[in-house]
Design brief:
about 425 residues; alpha+beta; Rossmann fold; Dna Ligase, domain 1; Glycinamide Ribonucleotide Synthetase, Chain A, domain 4; six-stranded antiparallel sheet; 12 helices; 25 strands; globular
């Protein structure tokens, strides 16, 4: 089987590595890929907005399956275009991807499906006086979210009125999130433990993969700005077997059913970002693709044939027995450029990547190769992951932090407390 992966981050490196182990695979391509995928696939540079060129590449190389990693090409309609020229795609249509590209639409789906989520109110960015009056009556902390895509950074926790109104001004007047902030949601602040659940679905049937916990904030102790993710671990012990069943039956299944009922069947990875509250699991957000860096800790915990799973979903006949949890554990720590998620410098040589330990995987994200050397080329640069064949988060955590000591580049930054919550 000839497979093409769309994307260039750590998630795509993890997808490529998992797929490269399949007996079904004959050739693997990545558009555009990165320094890590280059070692296991053929990287091809094509502009992700040039659907015609991507389609021509698929036709010329007789691609059997396209796997779309990032949210933007899905929202832009790449999967619709490719399906329109009879190419199988793992990834939802643009209409189904609205569950991520519009938080307002996601709330509509959840309300229609009676799925538990945070209480909220919607406002336009021009509704200054309405927002001010509303914020004066709110309980704090609360959460302000922009409706559109903001690379995982459009969620701000506000502890008082001043923080909230200044956040609204930044969104509405300074337009820090551009068009994504045309509409905002003001939500209640949910208290509990977070969990990320991936559901692989063919639009009707689904299976869930081992649950992970992401670390979105830039600073230790979950402080500072939201990022795309500074680390993750799996499986998270916060999800018991009964809780996992409740999430499948009260959240995942109703949402997949509701999307199909509305004529937007979801084919791909439906990512549920959850808060496990005292009242039970509630949805923080839905994403239309695999999470990053959760993918880097979930996929190494699967035995079986991951490519078979994704192909069967794209083909409309989900093979629920294609993969299974192998009983292991994994912790990923992201090494970022200091200054991220704001401005940062790049172009620094990375040393120490040659770690010869079968329990350590280095996923490339914001890297670039020049003359055989690897340099930093983004905000999140690499993800160092420790993978054990036993459930021992503490041991995996110790191992990953021991490994990351060997890796160095100028302005390198990483959190020191990834997976600390799991030890409690």
């Amino acid at each position: 089987m000839k497979v093409l992966i769309i994307g260039s981050g750590g998630r795509e490196h993890a997808l490529a590595l998992a797929i490269s182990k399949s007996k079904l695979l004959s050739e693997l391509y990545c558009i555009p890929g990165n320094s890590g995928t280059k070692q296991i696939s053929k990287n091809v540079y094509i502009d992700l907005q040039n659907f015609d060129s991507i389609g021509s590449f698929c036709s010329e190389h007789q691609i059997d399956l396209v796997i779309i990693g990032p949210e933007q090409p899905l929202v832009d309609g790449l999967s619709d275009y490719l399906r329109g020229i009879n190419i199988k795609v793992f990834g939802p249509s643009s209409s189904a991807a609205k569950i991520e590209s519009s938080k307002s639409y996601a709330k509509e789906i959840m309300n229609a499906a009676n799925v538990p989520t945070a209480k909220y109110e919607e406002f336009n960015s021009t509704d200054y006086w309405k927002v001010e009056n509303y914020l004066r009556e709110c309980e704090y902390p609360l959460v302000i979210k922009v409706d559109g895509l903001a690379a995982g950074k459009g969620v701000i926790i506000c502890n008082n009125f001043e923080e909230a109104i200044n956040t609204f001004k930044s969104i509405s007047e300074e337009k820090i999130f551009g068009k994504a902030g045309t509409k905002i949601l003001i939500e209640e602040f949910l208290i509990g433990e977070e969990a990320s659940v991936f559901a692989i679905t063919d639009g009707e049937n689904f299976i869930t993969l081992p649950a992970a916990q992401d670390h979105k904030r830039i600073g230790d102790g979950d402080t500072g700005k939201n990022t795309g993710g500074m680390g993750a671990y799996a499986p998270t012990p916060v999800l018991t077997e009964s809780l996992s069943h409740e999430i499948e039956e009260k959240i995942i299944r109703p949402v997949i059913f509701q999307l199909k009922k509305e004529g937007n069947p979801f084919i791909g990875c439906l990512y549920a970002g959850l808060m496990i509250t005292s009242e039970g699991p509630k949805v923080i957000e839905f994403n239309c693709r695999f999470g990053d860096p959760e993918t880097q800790v979930v996929l190494p915990l699967l035995d079986g044939d991951f490519l078979q799973l994704l192909y069967s979903a794209a083909d409309g006949r989900l093979d629920k027995n294609a993969v299974w949890y192998n009983g292991g554990s994994a912790v990923c720590v992201v090494a970022a450029s200091e200054g991220y998620p704001d401005s940062y410098q790049k172009g620094f040589e990375i040393s120490g990547l040659d770690i010869f330990d079968p329990q350590i995987i280095i996923y490339h994200a914001g890297t670039i190769e020049k003359d055989g050397k690897i340099f930093s080329n983004g905000g999140r640069v690499i993800g160092v992951t420790a993978v054990l064949n036993e459930f021992d988060i503490r041991k995996a955590r110790d191992k990953v932090y021991d490994a990351i000591k060997n890796i160095k580049f100028e302005n390198m930054y990483f959190r020191k407390d990834i997976a600390a919550k799991a030890l409690k």
